[in-house]
């Protein structure tokens, strides 16, 4: 089976495997259609997603014999969701700068320099215009300690900010080989089916870009183009992913900076209000503060909007189920106490391992608030250990293990046992004419015909497609 037939049939797991084996995704048939064209014609969003994730911008711009791109074909067939996805993916890729150019290298810095400069500028203004202001009375010992505590917390937050931005978030080592120099006995060409993830039917864990079978809670970040262990989210404000190895730094950064905003804001208000030279009338006091305490008022306004902006964004995004960026302080605590990531919360309805046998939400990695928090605070991360063996086995309901001597009757895909006793998958892509005798035009019809069970689920690639199947989409 080749990519063209798999895309036409909508076998997303088969596409993942073929891409994993370096199958050529841009091959055009006699009608000029690539696998992405056929996936768009059939309106299969998951197949399109897999091909776009593993492809390049040029794949979205290829035209077939009638001069239509995949997005235009999807729109012509009234597959609105697929057309929107392909159009949006093309716009995003067109806006992305070349990583080798000067502008591309600058864009990789993201918003981190802006955030760092903002915090540093506010900290400087606070020290100069609030703590050491000459037109304000001297600080008492106790109040001065509180005022400088805010400076200490903000400075410590900047250190954690740097660590979070520069630290490895948990990148998984890539296993990329040169397809021209690969030998027949390369591990890349023979995927051992005794891998626990593949035995469970989780073919979505195959990463066609990194050429690995990634852990269950890992995800490929489209921005960093790497698989990240315990992927939480990609934060543009720190210009890095938040994952297993830097989530502790990220959370502590949020705690320190929000605490610093509360303390410094309170100190600034107290200093301005208790000015002994300020007039008693409110209107006159406003005029006096606006002329004599410009720096303190400016700091207070920015601090106010930043603090409440973070709070509002947290509530809004939490209510939508999508928590991103540095507005996730409140929800980060919730996630830590439940041992669940932002990515998992946003995909609760799609990830099968977050559903119990009854179909309701169940987090198998939740060991209770006390243990979750202690493991995170002591180790900096939580191990991917399921809460109980019984619940782990319950996830296997509906998952079938493929026998060692199973094979596909048409010879496209079969398994064999090598000399070491390991079972491997071989792919035969000799049949490239997936659509014999069919001439494509913009007016042709590709309806959903009745399918046999063998067509609906490709043997060996559809393991566990019952209640336990998970779907992967671009984040």
TrEMBL record:
Membrane topology: Multi-pass membrane protein
Region (Disordered): 411-475
Enzyme class: transferase
Superkingdom field: Eukaryota
Catalytic reactions on record: L-cysteinyl-[protein] + hexadecanoyl-CoA = S-hexadecanoyl-L-cysteinyl-[protein] + CoA
InterPro entries recorded: Ankyrin_rpt, Ankyrin_rpt-contain_sf, Palmitoyltrfase_DHHC
Molecular function as annotated in GO: protein-cysteine S-palmitoyltransferase activity
Gene Ontology cellular-component annotations: Golgi membrane
Cell location: Endomembrane system
Composition bias, Basic residues: 435-451
Pfam families reported for this sequence: Ank_2, DHHC
EC number: 2.3.1.225
ANK-type repeats, residues: 31-55
Residues passing through the membrane, by range: 109-131, 143-164, 250-273, 293-316
SMART domains linked to this entry: ANK
Keyword field: Acyltransferase, ANK repeat, Membrane, Repeat, Transferase, Transmembrane, Transmembrane helix
Record-annotated Palmitoyltransferase DHHC domain positions: 205-347
Stated family: Belongs to the DHHC palmitoyltransferase family.
Domain-level remarks: The DHHC domain is required for palmitoyltransferase activity.
Name assigned to this protein: S-acyltransferase
Biological source species: Corchorus olitorius
């Amino acid at each position: 089976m080749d990519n063209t037939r798999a895309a036409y049939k909508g076998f997303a797991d088969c596409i993942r495997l073929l891409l994993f084996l370096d199958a050529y995704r841009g091959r055009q048939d006699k009608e000029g259609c690539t696998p992405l064209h056929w996936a768009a014609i059939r309106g299969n969003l998951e197949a399109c997603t897999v091909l776009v994730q593993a492809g390049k911008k040029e794949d979205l711009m290829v035209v077939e014999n009638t001069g239509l791109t995949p997005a235009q074909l999807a729109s012509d067939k009234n597959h609105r969701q697929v057309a929107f996805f392909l159009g949006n993916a093309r716009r995003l890729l067109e806006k992305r700068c070349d990583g080798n150019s000067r502008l591309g290298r600058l864009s990789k810095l993201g918003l981190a320099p802006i955030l760092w400069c903002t915090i540093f500028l506010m900290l400087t203004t606070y020290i100069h215009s609030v703590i050491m202001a000459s037109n304000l009375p001297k600080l008492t010992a106790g109040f001065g300690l509180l005022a400088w505590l805010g400076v200490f917390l903000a400075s410590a937050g900047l250190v954690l900010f740097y660590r979070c931005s520069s630290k490895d978030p948990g990148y998984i080592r890539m296993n990329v080989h040169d397809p021209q120099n690969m030998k027949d006995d390369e591990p890349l060409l023979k995927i051992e089916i005794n891998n626990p993830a593949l035995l469970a039917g989780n073919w979505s864990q195959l990463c066609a870009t990194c050429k690995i079978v990634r852990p269950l809670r890992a995800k490929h970040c489209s921005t960093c183009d790497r698989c990240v262990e315990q992927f939480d989210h990609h934060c543009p404000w720190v210009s890095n992913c938040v994952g297993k190895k830097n989530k502790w730094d990220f959370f502590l950064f949020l705690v320190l900076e929000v605490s610093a905003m509360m303390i410094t804001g309170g100190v600034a208000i107290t200093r301005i209000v208790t000015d002994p030279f300020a007039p008693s009338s409110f209107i006159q006091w406003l005029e006096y503060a606006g002329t004599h305490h410009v720096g303190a008022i400016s700091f207070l306004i920015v601090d106010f909007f930043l603090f409440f902006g973070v709070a509002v964004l947290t509530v809004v995004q939490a209510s939508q189920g999508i928590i991103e960026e540095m507005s996730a302080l409140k929800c980060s605590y919730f996630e830590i106490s439940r041992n669940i990531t932002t990515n998992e919360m946003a995909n609760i309805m799609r990830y099968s391992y977050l559903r119990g046998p009854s179909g309701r939400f169940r987090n198998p990695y939740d060991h209770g608030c006390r243990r979750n928090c202690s493991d995170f605070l002591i180790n900096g991360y939580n191990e991917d250990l399921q809460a109980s063996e019984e619940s782990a086995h319950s996830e296997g309901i509906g998952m079938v293990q493929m026998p060692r001597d199973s094979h596909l009757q048409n010879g496209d895909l079969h398994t064999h046992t090598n000399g070491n006793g390991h079972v491997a998958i071989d792919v035969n892509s000799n049949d490239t004419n997936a659509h014999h005798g069919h001439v494509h035009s913009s007016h042709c019809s590709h309806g959903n015909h009745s399918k046999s069970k063998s067509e609906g689920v490709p043997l060996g690639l559809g393991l566990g497609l019952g209640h336990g199947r998970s779907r992967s989409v671009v984040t």
